[in-house]
TrEMBL record:
Keyword Transmembrane helix tagged: yes
Keyword annotations: Membrane, Transmembrane, Transmembrane helix
Name of this chain's protein: YitT family protein
Signal peptide: none
Transmembrane segments: 34-52, 72-92, 99-120, 126-152, 173-190, 196-217
Pfam families (UniProt xref): DUF6198
UniProt cross-references to PANTHER family, sorted A to Z: INTEGRAL MEMBRANE PROTEIN, INTEGRAL MEMBRANE PROTEIN-RELATED
Organism: Candidatus Planktophila sulfonica
UniProt KW Membrane keyword: yes
Amino acid sequence: MKFSELLSVLKPHKTVPVTPWRAEHRWQLSPTRVLILFFGLAIFGLGDSLLVQGNVGNAPWTVFSQGLTLKTGMSIGWATFVISVFVLLIWIPLNEKPGFGTLSNIVLIATFIEVGTHIFPKQNSTLSGVFFSLLGIAMVGLGSALYITCGLGPGPRDGAMTGIHYKTGIRVGRVRLGIEVLVLIIGWLMGGTVGIGTALFALLIGQSVAIFLGVVARLTHK
């Protein structure tokens, strides 16, 4: 494959593409759609666990989960699950309604973060840690693209973001930034790992999701 062709394949997508497996409502289930959803969430969770095991800084929400782990003694998978359930409760005053994908998000991402932290070895060098972080960011991007295009409902954090946006009128980007900064600070104060990996995630995760949305769009278009 020529370099120009590779760049074309990896061109970021500006919107969420309409795929053959996209649902018309949040509880419209089919074997193919559910399989793609579960696969995407599993990849997402494993990608997040690579950031944890890279040991050079986690994504903001994982910093929060890790901090909770250090304070309570629960595993990082359980900490992620508890935080997700708590965030879902915030949906109630925001009048947001969960879908099958929302509930699957809570269970599967927490499960596969837990699985990944037992499968992948913890890294002790910056170089290998950065490699783990970059691979994890790519996997989170791929997993996000797959589960988002199923149309079965946003994850708890995304739903809270859009719900706060609709209630307050504050721009989505600013709401997301405010939430991410808040949980990052809380997690860091509780002992969560902040570092190069955190910065890489903040800088690259948006592009990673957009690139894989583009890949999905082009593959399904053909």
